UniProtKB/TrEMBL annotation:
It comes from the Eukaryota. The keyword NADP does not apply. It comes from Myripristis murdjan (pinecone soldierfish). One of its GO terms (cellular component) is mitochondrial outer membrane. GO terms for molecular function: ATP binding; glycerol kinase activity. The gene is gk. Pathway: Polyol metabolism; glycerol degradation via glycerol kinase pathway; sn-glycerol 3-phosphate from glycerol: step 1/1. This is glycerol kinase. Keywords: ATP-binding, Cytoplasm, Glycerol metabolism, Kinase, Membrane, Mitochondrion, Mitochondrion outer membrane, Nucleotide-binding, Transferase. InterPro entries: ATPase_NBD, Carb_kinase_FGGY, Carb_kinase_FGGY_CS, FGGY_C, FGGY_N, GK1-3_metazoan-type, Glycerol_kin.
Length: 578
């Protein structure tokens, strides 16, 4: 993405912080052409303290942002591009990831609990069991969301119940809650010395504490989860000046001091804006750590009957109307590559995965359901677990690589089917973006499994672009026009289906069968007997293990008893009569 020295006289530039689950990036765009001029990326470490737990260090996340800004500013200087031409900065972030920090010390009180984390499963089960008819959609009329481990409210509740520092900070009125956007904006605008504590409507709508109709925190929802409203950030639009950057002047990136942070969107909303899906019916699918299909539904929220979420798509200005979207969320997409690499050690990276899969061109009947964090849309089944089935002696790692790519495509097919049912108007092509779209085999498989064309933009950084567009268009900045006639033409590549629909349907039916095998694998909710005591059989796998062990012991005891009787009888037969 290098720029030549002839670009010294570039017009206004806009930057974006893209803080994702697996990496942080800082990118700089030309506001007139949407051209990416320079960027830098830093990987983020994830920790897994216990099974199902996923955490990240908020300090490392913040430091990665500073590093990306510094390195990008160095690159711009080398390209002879004036950093002072940057007129605004946007923020886009991994959604739902939850943290609490001390506003007096500026220090996080615990690691950030990542959106994938499953530690709150028992809390979710208890909440659902208390609702009329055990209805996981009990709060959906306000939030657009099912009660799930996915969203921030239950993660925050866990922090309050299990981390003494968080509990004490709330009692002493020192605690601040936020998703990653809130943490970054607060730190970058001064932190404990006057930092701005805010979030935007798209991130707020993923907490289960936000009313998507009133567009504000809901006192009844906060009471339901026992969350004090004083710790919540102020909710703002996705495009307005929140505060000004404050960076050490001795750094190259110190030149960014005083530049407004004026755009904020959750990553999937940012991708929707970056793909310019501004019309009712426009949709995009982003392939990152997870996979997220959003369809713009206009100025009215549409409630799904088929397992999708209703979410705020964007609100591009304080006085502008909010736009809503239907969303299909898949927990594991790109994360399956990381699992095959780090956990199984059968690939070195995504490029090898593509080569292995291409070498066989089929899974040979092997199906992989990567339900590592349960299943999200359209099932919302936290008890599901990952399975690989259909194995034979012929199956090898290349077939497994192909099955892993197919799994991403099948999961997208499930949420696309649900979206078509909810809207009544089937999509005739799918716009895509995200890191996995560089895998051409995956894109072709996706077209084959959906039986519709897949369209990939030539500039893949649509999430960061969306945040930059929101920042540049903000009142008081106004260097990026979002009028349809002013939007840049996007060049793209189209992948057409290459297999017949019958084969696609056969493979999809087998996938659905595999999904059913993954269901109801795990439960954490204790089963009590009549005396209120917990049963040892509350975990199904543990119950089977213990029951099987007991039967084996009884059987062994019975067999040994029979052998003893036989020996005694034999002795009696040979005993001399006195």
């Amino acid at each position: 993405m290098a720029a030549s020295s002839s670009r010294i006289m570039l017009g206004p530039l806009v930057a974006a912080i893209d803080q994702g689950t697996s990496s942080t990036r800082f990118l700089v765009f030309n506001s007139k052409t949407a051209e990416l001029l320079s960027h830098h990326q830093v990987e983020i470490k994830q920790s897994f303290p216990k099974e199902g737990w996923v955490e990240e260090d908020p300090r490392e996340i913040l430091q990665s942002v500073y590093e990306c800004m510094e390195r990008t500013c160095e690159k711009l200087t080398q390209l002879n591009i004036d950093i002072s031409n940057i007129k605004a900065i946007g923020v886009t972030n991994q959604r739902e990831t939850t943290l609490v920090w001390d506003k007096e010390t500026g220090e996080p009180l615990y690691n950030a609990i990542v959106w994938l984390d499953l530690r709150t499963q028992s809390t979710v089960e208890r909440l659902i069991n208390k609702t009329p008819g055990r209805n996981k959609n009990h709060l959906k009329h306000k939030t657009g969301l099912p009660i799930s481990t996915y969203f921030s409210a239950v993660k925050l509740r866990w922090l309050m119940d299990n981390v003494d520092e968080v509990h004490e900070a709330i009692l002493s009125h020192r605690a601040m809650f936020g998703t990653i956007d809130s943490w970054l904006i607060w730190c970058l605008t001064g932190g404990k010395k006057g930092g701005v504590h805010c979030t935007d409507v798209t991130n707020a709508s993923r907490t289960m504490l936000f009313n998507i109709h009133t567009m504000d925190w809901d006192p009844e929802l906060c009471s339901y989860f026992g969350i004090p409203m004083e710790i919540l950030p102020r909710v703002r639009s996705s495009s307005e000046i929140y505060g000004l950057m404050k960076i050490c002047s001795s750094l190259k990136s110190g030149a960014l001091t005083g530049i407004p942070i004026s755009g904020c969107l959750g990553d999937q909303s940012a991708a929707l804006v970056g793909q310019m899906c501004f019309q009712d019916g426009h949709a995009k699918n982003t392939y990152g750590t997870g996979c997220f299909l959003l369809r713009n539904t206009g100025s009215k929220p549409v409630m799904s009957d088929h397992g999708l979420l209703t979410t705020v798509a964007y609100k591009l200005g304080r006085d502008k109307p909010a736009c809503y979207a239907l969303e299909g969320s898949v927990a594991i997409a790109g994360a399956v590559v990381r699992w095959l690499k780090d956990n199984l050690g059968i690939i070195d990276g995504s490029e090898e995965l593509e080569k292995l899969a291409a070498s066989v061109g089929t899974s040979y009947g092997c199906y992989f359901v990567p339900a590592f964090s349960g299943l999200y849309a359209p099932y919302w089944e936290p008890s599901a677990r990952g399975i690989i089935c259909g194995l034979t002696q012929f199956t090898n790692r290349s077939h497994l690589a192909f099955a892993a790519l197919e799994a991403v495509c099948f999961q997208t097919r499930e949420i696309l089917d649900a979206m078509n049912q909810d809207s009544g108007i089937p999509l005739n092509q799918l716009q895509v973006d995200g890191g996995m779209t560089s895998n051409r085999l995956l894109m072709q498989l996706q077209a084959d499994i959906l039986c519709i064309p897949v369209v990939k933009p030539s500039m893949p950084e649509t999430t960061a672009l969306g945040a930059a567009m929101a920042a540049g268009a903000a009142e008081g900045v106004s260097v990026w026009s979002l009028s349809p006639e002013d939007l840049s033409e996007v060049t793209s590549e189209k992948f057409e289906p290459q297999i017949n629909p019958e084969e696609s349907e056969f493979r999809y039916a087998r996938w659905k069968k595999a999904v059913q095998k993954a269901m109801n694998w795990e439960t954490t909710e204790p089963i009590c007997n009549g005396n209120g005591e917990t049963s040892i059989f509350s975990s199904v796998p543990l119950g089977f293990y213990i029951l099987g062990s007991m039967l084996m012991l009884i059987g062994a005891k019975y067999i040994s008893g029979q052998c003893l009787l036989a020996c005694i009888s034999a002795e009696c037969v040979h005993m001399p009569v006195s």
